[in-house]
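Technical note accompanying the year-one report. For the benefit of new consortium partners, we illustrate the data format agreed upon in the data management plan: each record pairs a sequence with a structure-token string. No post-processing was applied to the example shown here.
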Amino acid sequence: MPGLPAASAKPVLPGMDLPVWPPLPDNHDDLDDSLDDMSDEDINTLLDEIIVTEKDWTNTHPNMIKCGSDKFYARFANSLQMLLVMECRLPDEVSYDVYKEVSLTIAAYLEDFVSGFGVWNAIRSIYRKTYGRQLPFFDCEYSDYFDDDINIEDVKFLVWQTFCRIGHTYETVYSPGSMAVERFAQIAYDELVEAVDKAPEAKRVDDYIRKVLRKGDFFEVRDIAKWLVCFNKLTSAPYVFEDMLAEAENIANSTSGKLQNVDMGVFFYNVTCTRSLQPYSGPLGCHPSVYIAEMCRQRGLEDLACRLDRLDVIPFSDFEVKEIKGGHVILKAPDGVEYNVVKNSFSPGMDFKFAKTILASIVRFGEEWYQNGLCTASGEVIDKEDGLREMTYNSTKMLEHVRKRIEVFGGRKVFYCAGLRAVSEITGLKYSQKKDDGNEIESNDPVVLFLSETDGMVVLRDYTECFKDKANPYYDKKVAEDRSLALITNCTIPDDVAVYIADNKLLPDASMAASQGKRYGKKIVQDNLRFLCGFFRTPDPAPEYED
């Protein structure tokens, strides 16, 4: 994509402190020369990429609700973006999209504050309950930090979050103390101070949120979750919408010739339903229902908050259709557990007289189970397979097994294994990989095994040397210094394991580059290790740019 001039720099490496160069001179000769060299088509493409329209802003709302305030927030985002472009030049390696995404995020922060949506307050409240502080990285424990006002520390966090979400996480782990974060945040905060008393409420959106939460209907609450995961700029990663379109297209292509008279909209609906209830979302890497539950508590809706606390999602599995009983369909999982699923949560065209097996995802909301997204039916009865396969269909049974193994090992959750056979010995389950001929692959390569009470089992290669533990014969300080940050950001450390690692100081070499020095870079990671593991558990799709 064509871009505006930026200062040259060395490649931005994992954990690198992000610099910012002085603004362009007043006459902007460099900018004029750059635009002169661009074709009309390139200029139009650039404008399409950077200009925020009223429709663009409407698309950040739940169900794309249009408000009279949309023009104000679109203009605010555009004004802030142009100011950032003129005042802050970033290295060439940083995506130009960062200017627009920062501006959209700060505009969302302003709209959320003025309109009382409660999304930012929910993030901050959950963080406070979990960690005992207002925010990571920044000192908010002073008299000028206000829960009921805009704060420079909030803006710094949101700018840091946006920088880290632009592109693949392992390429963009920027220090929260970077010059660019400080500079962007100060400019954005100054603009917020000027705008906050003039900014209008997005009343139609706030009324919609309040109505949905008061009513407590599963499908409408799921739409709020969809908004948080996919569209709200405070909680969603950039490029999620494009990634969902690509996933829907891949599903459509994979079913080519199998399904007839089904348009792309159906596949996209399925993807959005699945994403809405994904296990990790937003800056805290938690289930979207956690944010919504906190928004409910802000409004005194404790009953719905409790229902959301108990929400349970079973991913796509094969279920045997046992019978239709009143308004429910009784489905039996491979491990024998039966679920009474609300019948009208299935597609109206579902033929239960034909269906003997259904491939579906189901969700428990309150006392009821609902089918989520698309499902497919078969006239064949489900095949029974070995116990491990059956166990993987039902998270409850697997987690029960893992919890018992954790008890056997006295609460230990991190293990260092000489290959998969050692993994099997610890887990009490057969864990192997197969060659094309069906024979097992024998490997003694060291792996690290996590046993999680919430996520089950995780096995990782290439990071065993990172753990400084008397029980780990593979620890290597040099390797640990090089790889520990990548381990934290590779999206695979469950929260209870992150707590175990932090409490036992198992990753003491994890650090990031910072202009304030090595000591600061290490302190940032060590003091915020659990939060960083959670932050990077949230899927972070990145676009593929054409050369």
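Partners are asked to follow this layout when depositing records. Residues 97-115 form the longest helix (19 residues).
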